[in-house]
Give the backbone structure.
Amino acid sequence: MTIATLHLAFFATAGLLSSQVTSSASGQALVKSEACGMPKEFVGLRDVEPMDLTGENLRTFSTEVAIGRLTLTKSAAYVRSCYNDNENGASAGCNLFVQSHLVGINSSAVNNASCPFGSDACDTDAVRYDSGILYSNEDFGINYPESDSLSFRRVTTCAPVLGEKYATDWRDEVPETLAGLSNTSARYYEFGKGKNDNGCDATNSTTNSTTFCVSKYQKENLQAAYTVR
């Protein structure tokens, strides 16, 4: 009788404590493990040359690539299954996150916003998407102490720009690296300095405001990518 009583007491205690470990309704669990944490990674993975890596660095690189591909594949499948309509939990596999849909405080979408580049730079009204304020603990499930929690907000404004207003005339006798031509014509679009040092991928003779350029070769052979008047 003593053993049976202790047995029942142990199971009763375990049943009470289990509610503090996991919740079937929310799909959340508390985990404590020495093996948890972020994997080793390269800073600036896109700039790494795999052919120059050996040993541990090559294994780290391969792991990062594999994780990236797996994450992209699973994310794309999740979006197709769960976000094709406005209903929460479109299928049984749509309850993975703390919040199935992120709706920030005071979020909004405006179709007639002001041009972000100045009133005379845009071809039409701009659209503006405001995520509202999202919280790391409540919305993203990052369990930090309240004093270390973060809030997030993103505002994106988009509008078609009057490209012809900021384009130069066609300039002749410029070299082009894309097709290996030594003498062609090019037009420069000056929205501000581009990412590369020359400001233009295909030709030289750029200005300090050149963002990109379109060459005669591009106009004639890449018409699906460019519309040039």
Summary: The helical segments are 2-18, 55-82, 216-221. The CA atoms of residues 42 and 57 lie 9 Å apart.
